[in-house]
Structures are given as C-alpha cells and as structure tokens.
Amino acid sequence: MDTGDRLLTPGEVAALFRVDPKTVTRWAAAGRIGSIRTPGGHRRFRESEVRALLEGEGMLDEGEDVANRPRNVGPTASTGPGPANAGMY
Amino acid sequence: MDTGDRLLTPGEVAALFRVDPKTVTRWAAAGRIGSIRTPGGHRRFRESEVRALLEGEGMLDEGEDVANRPRNVGPTASTGPGPANAGMY
DNA sequence: ACTTATTTGGGTAATTGGGGGT
DNA sequence: TCTGTCCCAATTACCCAAATAA
C-alpha cells in the first residue's frame, strides 16, 4: 500500500543536506536514496526516507571495508519502508 | 481484482505527486497519463493509474541500517528491481 | 439562481535532468 | 572517489482572468 508520506523535491532535499541539488540527483542515480519519478522525468523523494537518512548520519563506526561489498540486492523486495508512518493528511 | 476506478481531481493527483495541478493537466495533454473529461471540460484521473505511476519506479531497497551501510556499492548490480525508466529525454 | 472552491487556458520565470570537466 | 559548477533542453511553478463543479 501507499507509504502515504509527503514527497520532497530535489531542492528541498538538497537544502536539508546542505548540498547541491545535483548531488542529490547523483545519490538517486546511484541508488543510495529512493526516488520517485514524475511522468515528466523529475524526481521526488520520500520525506520519511530523507529524515531517516538525516537522523542516521550521526552514526558511529566508520570502518571503510572494501571487502564488504554487497554487490547484489536480494529479490526480497521489501516494498514498504519499515516504519509504518500513519501520517495521512 | 478490484481496479478501484475512483476518479481523482487534478488537485488530488498534484498533491500525490507533489506538483502543481497545472502540471498534472500537462501530463494529460501530453498523453503521459490517462484522463477523463467531464462534459464541462474538466479532467478526472483514475486512482489506480495514479497509484501505479507513484509506486512504479520509486522502489528501492530502503535499509535504514546506516550502521551497517556499505559505503561502496559494488559493481554494476544488474539486479535492478525496476525496469529502466523509458521516459528519459 | 446563488456562493465558494477548484479547474481551465496562455505566458513567463525557476527548477531539474543529463553530460562534461575542475 | 565525491562534490560543485559549466553547458543546454525539458519540465515544472506562479501570474492573470473566466468557466465549471458541488
């Protein structure tokens, strides 16, 4: 079902992360952040995901381990993003 | 299965996509989204189609496990859950 | 027939996408 | 390797006034 969260524009996400909108676009292109495309081709980002990314950035452990490369995402397509946000407006 | 042909107004679709209602009208005019015209000339959109568009390409494995987040995404993971977007310009 | 909110139409500025190079 | 900036083309957002929907 629908996640039901608001969508953010690239500029909004860029402002939240204090980066250039192009950088946000690269994150989406690289698959580091989920993105929804409008029929026109522009991207929209889920606010819950962006906020989770923002909150999680203060993590510990910076082990740069190249040996750990999960090159393949399993077919376990978890459609719904974990948090069941019941924020319907 | 239930198609759910509820009709949505341009304002509803615009809110779902986080765009301007005028943009939704342009999508309909460009044939990117199906639309039904009222006798007065206003457009209505099918909820099932809108939802399919929203979830059709916004699906990415969203593991919010930043602690275990591999910074280097491996090589070309051809396991793309979604088909290559066929709407680029 | 009324009012209120939304949609329509055209035109112009701002944002976005993709590629390239620092 | 990652990010910021350049280009151009396409898409999108906001301005107006009139018509439609409920």
Write the layout of secondary structure elements.
The structure is a homodimer of 89-residue chains.
Chain A: E1 7-8, H1 10-17, H2 21-30, E2 36-37, E3 43-46, H3 47-56
Antiparallel strand pairs in A: 1-3, 2-3
Helix pairs in contact in A: 1-2
Chain B binds a DNA duplex (22 and 22 nucleotides) through helix 2.
Protein name (chains A, B): Excisionase family DNA binding protein
InterPro entries (chains A, B): BldC-like (IPR048048), DNA-bd_dom_put_sf (IPR009061), HTH_17 (IPR041657), SinI_DNA-bd (IPR010093)
Pfam families (chains A, B): HTH_17 (PF12728)
Descriptors:
homodimer; 89 residues; alpha+beta; Multidrug-efflux Transporter Regulator, Chain: A, Domain 2; 3-stranded antiparallel beta sheet; 31% helix; globular; disordered C terminus; DNA-binding
Outline of the structure:
The structure is a homodimer of 89-residue chains. Residues 62-89 of chain A have low confidence and may be disordered. Chain A has helices at 10-17, 21-30, 47-56, and strands at 7-8, 36-37, 43-46.
Any overview of this molecule?
Chains A, B: It comes from Micromonospora sagamiensis. Chains A, B: This is Excisionase family DNA binding protein. The structure is a homodimer of 89-residue chains. Chain A is an alpha+beta fold and 89 residues long. Chain A has a 3-stranded antiparallel beta sheet with strand order 1-3-2. In chain A, a hairpin with a 5-residue loop joins strand 2 and strand 3. In chain A, helix 1 crosses helix 2. The two termini of chain A are 16 Å apart. The C terminus of chain A is likely disordered. Chains A and B meet through strand 1, strand 2 and helix 3 of A and helix 2 and helix 3 of B. Chain B binds a DNA duplex (22 and 22 nucleotides) through helix 2.
